[in-house]
Amino acid sequence: MLMMRRACDFVVLAVVLAVSSTEAKIIEFDSCGSIIRPIIGKVLQIDITPCDSEPCVFRVGANVTAKITFIPEETVQDGLIELVAIFSRGERLPWPLKNPFACEDHNLNCPLKPKEPATAIIQTRVIEDIPGSYKLVAQVYMAETKLENYVFCFRIPVQVTY
Q1: DSSP state of 7
Q2: Which residues, in sequence order, are CB contacts of 119 under 8 Å at separation 6+?
Q3: Between the CA atoms of 56, 59, 61 and 66, what dihedral angle is there, to the nearest 10 degrees?
Q4: Contact criterion met (CB below 8 Å) for 15 and 23
Q5: Which residues form a coiled coil (predicted)?
Q6: % of residues, the chain, pLDDT over 70
């Protein structure tokens, strides 16, 4: 009976470890300030699933979820979210989202209030247009549509593989 209990405990531990290995990873990021548009918010944390190392390695066709926790410094009525893949030679490729409108389908209750944390959830699929086994930089930003200020902007290194 004791052997069976230990075996069950081991199975439970193995399942917990397997599930935790596919959970979100808090990612290091670089803020991308702008001389063109002021930034009216600050990113606190970025969690990406699936990602278990840095840079995150994404397979073509995989679904990726990013949870971006940020604090706007001003009221944000609405906005647009954009992802861009930036290659080593500077080429930029837009990374399509199902819905670019920040206040629709991204877990945000607009208008966003100043100094109150908010969490945007972005879900996307790794597109086939990105050649396999490339390291690139993913730039993600939310632009407030009325004044066209950036609410946040950050860059993270990623690798895409087939």
Answers
A1: H
A2: 67, 68, 69, 70, 107, 108
A3: -10
A4: no
A5: none
A6: 81
Pairwise CA distance, residues 73 & 115, whole Å: 5
C-alpha 103/C-alpha 97 separation (Å) is 13
CA dist., res. 47 & res. 4, Å (int): 38
pLDDT above 70 for 4? no
Q: Output the pLDDT for position 3.
A: 37
Q: Can you name the residues that pair with 41 across neighbouring β-strands?
A: 72
What pTM was computed for the model? 0.80
Q: Given phi > 0 = left and psi -120 to 50 = alpha, else beta, which region is 148?
A: left
Q: Which pairs count as long-range contacts for 93-101, CB under 8 Å and 24+ apart, including other chains?
A: 93/129, 93/130, 95/124, 95/127, 95/138, 96/124, 96/127, 97/122, 97/124, 98/123, 98/124
Phi, psi of 24 (to 5 degrees): -65, 150
Walk me through the domains of the chain, giving residue ranges and CATH numbers. Answer: 25-160 (2.60.40.770)
pLDDT in tens, 128-152: 766 667 889 999 999 998 878 899 9
Q: Residues near 12 by Cβ (< 8 Å), separated by ≥ 6?
A: none
